[in-house]
């Protein structure tokens, strides 16, 4: 589940282990905050000697931070770690009470669980009351229940999973969602087209449906046209992208779109395709593919004819080949 992966991620960060958290390396610094007497010199005690005793064997915040930030340190995070992971480690040094126990749920604005074998989006996510970005790419998720998603979500990325049905996701979707990433899944049209409307995603700005199995361009455009805030759309890799008038029809049908398939839509292109949306008869549900075979080595050339002498009884050997392409 996502929750299990989340706790495993926290364990990997070591927020309670040296040089983070509270321990013998910084105990007096935080005992002074928790106890009115902790870390303070007693009556008649020498303040200088008391301070020397308390700090003996401890590290300064500056020294602990250096262990986190120095790339040669064994406690440094890998270079590809997220900025939030680095921020959590720093908080665990300077203010460990903020990342201790249930307080950790208030810290997370972004959660990235990538390629961890996650199959279930469970209700444990609801504890992350401030979560705005959830990245669950390259897992094994086939079903998402919207009731288990924080209502604060603005970005939901599910690229490279096994999602085939959007019904559960659209039961009570996060109302403020601005980006929905569903590329490289198993969505098929037209059964899923009806879930891609403003009735479910009123604030959607960016939508990635690339490399699924959408086939009905006219039907999909009809649904997408209700998304008044949509500016970025990715549909490449679907069968409908093979239609000759695919890009022009989309550009003219969705006038507020700024980027289609990672390519900016300029004024010249809009002028070029103006009026195409009113000619749906040009959108055919078929495509022609011409395949040219280049050089092939290691097999006889069937085009070479063997010239035989008149009356020769020698056997004639012929070659033929079949090349198959799967779409």
TrEMBL record:
**InterPro entries, per the entry:** Leu-rich_rpt, LRR_dom_sf
Please tell me whether the keyword Cytoplasm is annotated for this protein. Answer: no
Which Pfam families does the entry mention?
Answer: LRR_1 (PF00560)
Alphabetic keyword roster: Leucine-rich repeat, Repeat
Q: Name one GO cellular component term.
A: cytoplasm
Q: Which PANTHER family match?
A: LEUCINE-RICH REPEAT-CONTAINING PROTEIN 51 (PTHR15454:SF19), NISCHARIN RELATED (PTHR15454)
Name of the protein described by the UniProt record: LRC43 protein
């Amino acid at each position: 589940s996502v929750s299990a992966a989340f706790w495993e991620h926290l364990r990997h960060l070591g927020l309670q282990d040296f040089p983070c958290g509270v321990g013998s390396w910084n105990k007096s610094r935080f005992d002074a905050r928790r106890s009115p007497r902790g870390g303070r010199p007693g009556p008649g005690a020498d303040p200088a000697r008391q301070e020397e005793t308390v700090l003996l064997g401890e590290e300064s915040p500056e020294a602990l931070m250096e262990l986190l930030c120095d790339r040669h340190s064994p406690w440094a995070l890998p270079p590809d770690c997220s900025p939030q992971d680095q921020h959590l480690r720093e908080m665990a040094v300077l203010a460990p009470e903020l990342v201790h126990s249930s307080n950790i749920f208030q810290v997370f604005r972004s959660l990235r669980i990538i390629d961890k074998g996650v199959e279930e989006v469970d209700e444990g996510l609801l504890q992350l009351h401030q979560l705005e970005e959830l990245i669950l790419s390259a897992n094994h998720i086939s079903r998402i229940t919207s009731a288990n998603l924080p209502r604060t979500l603005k970005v939901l990325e599910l690229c490279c999973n096994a999602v085939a049905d959007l019904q559960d996701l659209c039961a009570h979707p996060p109302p403020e969602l601005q980006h929905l990433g569903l590329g490289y899944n198993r969505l098929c049209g037209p059964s899923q087209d009806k879930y891609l409307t403003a009735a479910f995603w009123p604030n959607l700005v960016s939508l990635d449906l690339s490399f699924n199995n959408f086939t009905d361009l006219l039907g999909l455009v009809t649904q997408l046209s209700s998304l008044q805030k949509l500016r970025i759309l990715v549909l490449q890799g679907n069968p409908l992208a093979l239609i000759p008038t695919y890009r022009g029809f989309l550009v003219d049908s969705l006038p507020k779109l700024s980027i289609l398939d990672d390519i900016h839509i300029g004024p010249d292109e809009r002028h070029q395709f103006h009026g195409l949306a009113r000619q749906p008869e040009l959108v055919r549900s078929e495509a022609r593919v011409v395949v040219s075979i280049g050089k092939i080595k290691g097999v006889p050339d069937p085009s070479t004819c063997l010239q035989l002498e008149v009356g020769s009884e020698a056997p004639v050997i012929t070659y033929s080949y079949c090349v198959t392409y799967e779409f």
